[in-house]
Input
Amino acid sequence: MRFLVTGGAGFIGSAFVRMLAKSTNAEIVNLDKLTYAGNLENLASLPAHVKHRFVHGDICDAKLVESTIEQLRPDVIVHFAAESHVDRSILSPDAFFETNLRGTLTLLEGARKLKVPRFLHVSTDEVYGSIEPPHEADENYPLRASSPYSASKAGSDLLALSYFVTYKLPVTVTRASNNYGPYQFPEKLIPLMISNAIEDKPLPIYGDGMQIRDWLYVDDHCRAIMAAIEKGGPGEIYNIGGSRALPNVDVVRKILAALDKPESLMQTVKDRPGHDRRYALSSEKLMRETGWRAEMPFEEGLKETIAWYRSNGDWVSRVKSGEYLHYYERNYGGRAV
Ligand code: NAD
Ligand code: TYD
Output
């Protein structure tokens, strides 16, 4: 099969490309702008024989998108490219509008004009907003986005689904819970806490730290996307939940214990505005229709992730230099309580 992957130099996109390279002989074209979150080092382990071509560019560039599709004639577009971090969307929402909405629209238009037979739009459980216990969101749950990030993802989901209804473009939307694993940019909770703890730096806990996230190992997510491509229906939405719902402080305590670091490194800071209290997903539809299951137990996935960050200090220090320092100061400076 021929795959056009967008955002394949980011955290989840690169795991998907590595998975394709390992388990198929697919031809892969990887379109990525290499923003602060994109990193070709994430693909350095691809064996030489793999049919992978990297295209450096923006999904908002209609000409580039169309010529890339025209050349490859993909069987499927798997669309990961996005601005993906809630805190950054609160500081600077514009790029979220551009990439997540304009970029998705540009890809959908390219796919429609050139009749791409399948379009998998990768989305998030954050589009449902905070879920009151004991409820879980199924795919028909109302969209109640809280942040500019989740609003831009909800908008892009609706655009993608409208292309199925209006133009019969065979679009499938997946909505996954919080991912973790190797190569995640250390702005997100788990890699930020691991890398700060390794350096004996304070671990910033937003508010009371009792917000709940359902953790999904990145490779389980990638298998779920393949299952949705192979066995899911066009025009359908599939939730992809994780293997473990936990309050943030419990996650951070586990990280500190695994690294043999003191809990005194945890530092309460001012809460994130609009902070969603709890995410909870039902993945029953995906499990029933495709047989997919989240396989990685959280403790084991966390252990592997910590081991990866410990033995990839060079990767961490490269991505934590330059732009990262500026972002860190903007997001965390003046947040002490
Ligand atoms: P990431 O931030 O690690 O990577 C995003 C990638 O997209 C980067 O390689 C970046 O260079 C690229 N990109 C950004 N703007 C672009 C543009 N205009 N043109 C081309 N490329 C561009 O993100 P991630 O965590 O790997 O998330 C991937 C997708 O999965 C996103 O759509 C995100 O909304 C979704 N998602 C993420 C999570 C999570 O926990 N990280 C959970 C559910 C869904
Ligand atoms: P994050 O990884 O940003 O994912 P999302 O907000 O998309 O769920 O954050 C996960 C949880 O961790 C969320 O409740 C916010 C919290 N958090 C902190 O307490 N401190 C931090 O420094 C970060 C980045 C997140």
